[in-house]
Amino acid sequence: MIAMMLASWLVSWRLKSKFQKYSQTPLSSGLSGREVAEMMLRDNGITDVRVISVAGKLTDHYNPADKTVNLSEYVYEARSAAAAAVAAHECGHAVQHATAYNFLKFRSAMVPALSIASRYMQWILLIGIFMLQTTPIPLAIGVGLFALTTLFSFITLPVEFDASRRALAWIDQRGIVTTQEHGMAKDALKWAAMTYVVAALGSLATLLYYASLLMGRRD
Questions:
Q1: DSSP reduced 3-state for 80
Q2: CA 20 to 30 Å from 3, out of 77, 114, 194, 197?
Q3: Residues contacting residue 103 through CB under 8 Å, at least 6 positions apart
Q4: pLDDT mean over 68-93
Q5: pLDDT tens-place string over residues 131-179
Q6: pTM as predicted
Q7: Residue 26 reports pLDDT greater than 70
Q8: Average pLDDT, stretch 111-121?
Q9: What keywords are assigned to this protein (predicted)?
Q10: How far apart (Å, rounded) are the C-alpha atoms in residues 63 and 90?
Q11: Strand pairing partners for 53?
């Protein structure tokens, strides 16, 4: 778990440094993140999704509940390879939503159960550890809930990779980026995806730790 925490910090630092570097390179097409997003939505026949600006850095996301592509202030008006990549990636999620992409549907279906699990999971695990010598039931329930969150983390991976694949294919096809800018966009999205990979592995490592406690009690 310590190794995963260190890896998470390193990947996060690397992502921020890459984004900062590629944000300083002007996009040859001169399009802003907002314009890239709106163009990609139009090209995919999506007319019911709004592109809006949100505060923060690297806070970009697609909200399927209100159908909004939320671009951070560092992406919304920026005209760089990094901004184009992020904007197109978030629109990739909107395309997934519009086309009923299976992994996104599965992930969305898990959200209600995950919301309940996340609310009580830590308390149940804590109680389970304290009561481990008396009964393994609370810890077993906690492990089950944690397994659900770990599954969610791994289901997120194909969703993110597919959104990046769609984004890179579209910005190439549309001539949004040059060959050099494509490399920058691909690299930025790769490091963004790595944050999800590390998060999933970290969740798995934690799950195995709690599961080892439970199996040790049974032994």
A1: strand
A2: 114
A3: 155, 158, 159, 162
A4: 95
A5: 888 889 999 999 999 999 999 999 999 999 999 999 999 999 999 999 9
A6: 0.88
A7: yes
A8: 90
A9: Membrane, Transmembrane, Transmembrane helix
A10: 9
A11: 71
Task: Retrieve residue 61's tokens.
Answer: 């996301």
Chain center to CA of 206: 19
| Whole-angstrom distance, CA of residue 130 vs CA of residue 188 | 44
- Per DSSP bridges, beta strands 68-72 and 61-63 are antiparallel
Tokens 């991976």 belong to 157
Neighbours of 152 (CB within 10 A): 19
In the chain, where the domains are located: 1-27+80-216
Residue entry with tokens 């300083």: 24
Helices (H), the chain: 2-23, 33-43, 73-76, 81-98, 102-130, 137-173, 179-218
pLDDT of residue 218: 53
